[in-house]
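Supplementary Note 3. Input sequence used for the single-chain structure prediction.
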Amino acid sequence: MTIDQITYFVELANCHTLSQAAINLHISQAGLSRSISQLEAEVGFALFSRSRHGSLLTAKGRQFLQFAEQLLATYHAAQEAARQIGTGKQAEIRIAVCCYLQAINQQFINLQRSGHHFTLRMNELPSSQIINLIKNGLYDLGLIAINTVAKDTLQDLQTKLVTHGHLRLYVPANSQFAKIEQVTVKDLKQMKFVLYEDQYNERLFNLLQLKTGPLNVVFHGGSDWTADYIADDLQACFVGRDFQFNYAGKKLQHSFVPLSLAHLIDDRFDLLWIKRPHYELNPLEQSFLDTDITKIEID
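The predicted structure, written as discrete structure tokens, is reproduced below.
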């Protein structure tokens, strides 16, 4: 079993056709087919079922795929570590977050000021994307917000709970809805909505619409900051997680009022750190994992 064979297997699993996988890998279809057959002979079971629809993973192939992806991620991480050691380049910490939090930024500043030399590569992405990026080894630490029904997507990723939270409906503080004790379907039908670009948030919003019918969405996408800015400017409502609102800054907190949606949907979620099961954190990465983001106040 070679790294090339594992690479070819993962690529074919993603492409489903020998022709496209061979093009992506810059090898011949015959060479790719031969390599897959050799790998199947070594593992002792068929990885793909081949038909006119392409090459589809067998049940055993799907089980093997997660280990193959882990192996590739570890191999690429080892390559990068060797390159850094060989060139003397400073370490790089790779973190993907579902929203920027001041505590993480402050921890980076504190470490730099105390003489630690490293590069922080951090990106704000939807939680569903972060999970796949962590699995594939493109980031090493992820901070995600996830509700119960989506937790099966984590599979064997290791998690550390940061806090429990709730999805809230945020309405303009100066609107007619701000003093409502319990929001009704009729109220929701009168509101304008701004949506974040987040698969799990969208799933809950869609569940809400199953009970209310279509709601008036005026903006969908962009970063959390963009959505917040537009909602504030247009006096629109948004459905967001309470931790994001709590650490979003006093301007937003003064502009919107949170209302409960618990009587309409399951509004619970967890804020989690995630990492690959066999990835060993270095001390700098561990310091980010140990940062208490719930005690940071933002002006």
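The CA atoms of residues 108 and 120 lie 8 Å apart. The mean pLDDT is 85.
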